[in-house]
Design brief:
The complex is a heterodimer of chains A (628) and B (99).
Chain A lengths: L1 E2 L3 H18 L7 H24 L8 E11 L2 E9 L1 H24 L6 H20 L3 H19 L6 H31 L5 H7 L5 H18 L8 H4 L5 H10 L3 H9 L1 H6 L1 H24 L3 H21 L2 H31 L17 H15 L5 H14 L3 H30 L16 H22 L3 H6 L15 H23 L14 H7 L4 H47 L6 H22 L1
Parallel strand pairs in A: 1-2
Antiparallel strand pairs in A: 2-3
Chain B lengths: L3 H20 L3 H26 L3 H31 L13
Pfam family, one (chain B): Oxidored_q2
Family (chain B): Belongs to the complex I subunit 4L family.
Membrane topology (chain B): Multi-pass membrane protein
Chain lengths: 628, 99
């Protein structure tokens, strides 16, 4: 452990940028985007500095901590606002700030016509700051602050064009679904506090081995719920598609560098909990496996280029969650896939934004076609990202995805075979829908609207795409050369014994490539050999219809949660009005009614009062007489 | 002479007074009837004192007289005031307090 005073600048710089841009108002319109980009870039610089320092130290001395201030101190319970930068979080810091900065640069040009560009950069900086706090917090409570900050920033950015009601609704949907996950995280923190008595990573790691498996399983499941919310995993995945309402750079940021990777980070960071709670770990794998197929199937039917990419994110994050759920053997590969995915998915999203930029913000791929000739740079960068996500050697995805597939096969027994087949199947479907996106967008005949004049994007937009494309090509090779990333992360995870190998790596790669080839060929036959209709055909199979509606996820949520929820709410309102308010009003009515009846007795005539007293006295005497 | 006869007289006087309070409208007469009831009670106290052979009843009778004297002072003052403002001593007219 080493201490450092410069960690806080990682977060403080983008946070300062956001504060200045939000407070300065219209005065900052002229230079706001430059300041925002500089803040993000300098945070990246601090990250690089930290990496260089870290590389010079031995494994044990690599984690860096910084105590900011004493946050909560009650009795024996102490939480410091502290930062922790270790081998795991430095990967995230560099991905967040690096890809984040590229997206900032891209946005300068992409958002140049938007008169609220300054506010956009303020939110981008806030997003980066919150995400950095999330990965740098040294306890679950500190992480939670960043976690909520990410939720807020994503809400602001998805609903950036909130003048359109549908977009505002999409941001609300994302926020509400994320809240469900947030509940999971807060429950996990509460259980950890109640059973272990501490919420810091270090403290829980120390006490994990003599804590009951039941408590650890409960914490693990709650953490998984949290991860499914932020990472758009089954069953809290429905917000991701609608989140495409935000400007395209936001989609790139959410899908590659921030937000959805938070869940993978949470599970990897909590490795000491999941390793000790096999049930929770199995659930993680199941969630990952379901989501990777779920997302891939949705991807096959989407005509909206951003939604197709969103579905692919869901599926790829499914791979990461699955990898993280495989235990110590899988964590490093999950992180590796996360990093390579960060490059190629950000590149493809920025490419999609570039296509939209040239096509009057048209997102329907059926109205694209033949754009290869008009947008050569976008085509090449998008194409490199495409080869990377397919897992074609030697592009990035080949190294990271194949390792997850291989680990899945080798996880042992029937579970291993099922997981292996699922991941292989996912690879095949991924190849199919990504090839479909490529063919529909860049090849074939043009199916544009009359007013479309496609053109290549300016340098500020294609330069980040080009840099990301370089990452898509090389990152996998660099990270896996000599098991670089695996060895880098190894000190953080429990060491594991050698596993017997069900299939040799070369066989797995061969199978995966075969699946990819099948996917590509099917997509080629279906979309390149035949005419593509400019309007989506209606007479399609029932499966296509279901996939177009996101596998009925919204209908399911509406039928199972929303409508009963509304019924419950209206029933509660009625109960409140009639039973609770009724009781209160009833008491008042009773007093009023009895008062008006009894008022008749108060005639004001002294003689009748006297007569009543007399009668009363007589009755009293008579009663006493009878009793005695 | 049998002491019980005094009690009968007392009961008779009390009844006359009570009926008077309920039946008559003139405040002065009602007042006099109340005095009659008080004195009927006094008679009963004194009689019981005689029957029991101690002075407790007589002492209470003195207290009653003091209370009656005070009551006369306050009551007559009220009646006179009401008569001055309303030109009437009827108890039924003074029924405004109910509102």
């Amino acid at each position: 452990m080493t201490t450092s005073n410069s960690l806080v600048y990682l977060i403080a710089l983008p946070l300062l940028g956001a504060t200045i841009l939000l407070l300065a108002g219209r005065r900052a319109d002229k230079w706001g985007h430059i300041l925002g980009t500089l803040m993000s870039a300098s945070s990246f610089g601090v990250g690089l500095y930290q990496l260089s320092q870290m590389l010079g130290r031995s494994n044990e001395a690599r984690p860096v901590t910084q105590k900011l201030f004493e946050w909560i101190s009650v009795g024996t319970f102490n939480v410091d606002a502290g930062l922790l930068l270790d081998q795991l979080s430095i990967c995230f810091v560099l991905l967040i700030t690096g890809v984040g900065t590229l997206i900032h640069i891209y946005s300068i040009s992409y958002m140049s016509h938007d008169h609220d560009r300054r506010r956009f950069f303020a939110y981008l900086n806030l997003f980066i700051a919150a995400m950095l706090l999330l990965v740098l917090g040294n306890s679950y409570l500190n992480l939670y602050v960043g976690w909520e900050g990410v939720g807020l920033a994503s809400y602001l950015l998805i609903g950036f064009w909130n003048q359109k009601p549908a977009y505002a609704t999409a941001s609300k949907k994302a926020f509400v679904m994320n809240r469900i996950g947030d509940m999971g995280l807060s429950f996990a923190i509460m259980i950890a506090f109640a059973t272990i008595g501490t919420v810091s990573f270090e403290g829980i790691k120390e006490h994990a081995h003599h804590t009951s498996t039941g408590a650890l399983t409960a914490i693990g499941i709650m953490l998984l719920v949290a991860a499914t919310g932020k990472s758009a995993q089954f069953p809290l995945q429905a917000w991701l598609g609608d989140a495409m309402a935000g400007p395209t750079p936001v989609s790139a940021l959410i899908h590659a560098a921030t937000m959805v990777i938070a869940g993978v980070y949470l599970i990897t960071r909590s490795n000491f909990i999941f390793d000790a709670a096999p049930t929770a770990q199995l659930l993680v794998v199941i969630v990952g496996a379901i989501t990777l197929l779920f997302g891939a199937l949705i991807g096959t039917a989407k005509d909206d280029i951003k939604k197709a990419l969103a579905a692919s994110t869901m599926s790829q994050i499914g791979y990461m969650i699955l990898g993280a759920g495989l235990g110590p053997v899988g964590y490093a590969f999950a992180i590796m896939h996360l990093l390579t995915h960060g490059f190629f998915k950000a590149g493809m999203f920025l490419g999609a934004g570039s296509v939209m930029h040239g096509m009057n913000d048209e997102v329907n791929m059926r109205k694209y076609g033949a754009l290869r000739k008009f947008m050569p740079i976008t085509f090449v960068t998008f194409g490199l990202g495409y080869l990377a996500i397919l897992g074609v050697p030697p592009f990035a995805g080949f190294y990271s995805k194949d390792m997850i597939i291989e680990t899945a096969f080798n996880s042992g027994g029937t579970k291993g075979i099922i997981l292996g087949v699922v991941t292989l199947l996912g690879a095949g479907i991924t190849a199919f829908y990504m090839t479909r996106v490529m063919i529909l967008t860049f090849t074939g005949k043009s199916r544009w609207d009359a007013e479309a004049h496609p053109h290549e994007s300016p340098i500020l937009m294609w330069l980040p795409m080009a840099i990301l494309a370089v990452g898509s090509v090389s990152s996998g090779f660099l990270l896996s050369r000599g098991d670089a990333l695996v060895n880098w992360l190894a000190p953080l995870f429990e060491q594991h014994g050698e596993h017997e190998e069900l299939l040799a790596p070369i066989v797995v790669s061969g199978l995966a490539l075969a699946m990819v080839a099948i996917g590509v060929v099917v997509a080629f036959l279906k979309y390149s050999r035949q005419e593509v209709a400019a309007v989506a055909p209606e007479n399609v199979s029932v499966f296509t219809k279901i996939a177009r509606q996101d596998l009925m996820q919204d209908s399911f949520n509406e039928a199972v949660f929303m409508r009963p929820g509304q019924l419950l709410t209206s029933a509660l309102v009625k109960t409140d009005e009639h039973v609770i308010d009724g009781a209160v009003r009833g008491v008042a009515q009773l007093a009023l009614g009895s008062g008006s009846v009894l008022r008749g007795v108060q005639s004001g005539f002294v003689r009748s009062y006297a007569a009543l007293i007399l009668i009363g006295a007589a009755l009293l005497i008579a009663a006493i007489w009878v009793v005695i | 002479m049998d002491a019980a006869n005094y009690l009968y007289l007392s009961a008779l006087l009390f009844t006359i007074g009570a009926v008077g309070v309920v039946v008559r409208r003139n405040a002065i007469v009602v007042f006099m009837c109340i005095e009659l009831m008080l004195n009927a009670a006094n008679l009963a106290f004194v009689t019981f004192s005689r029957i029991n052979g101690d002075l407790n009843g007589q002492v209470v009778a003195f207290f009653t007289m003091v209370v009656a004297a005070c009551e006369v002072v306050v009551g007559l003052a009220i009646i006179v005031t009401i008569y001055r403002s309303r030109r009437s001593a009827s108890v039924d007219d003074a029924s405004l307090l109910k509102r």
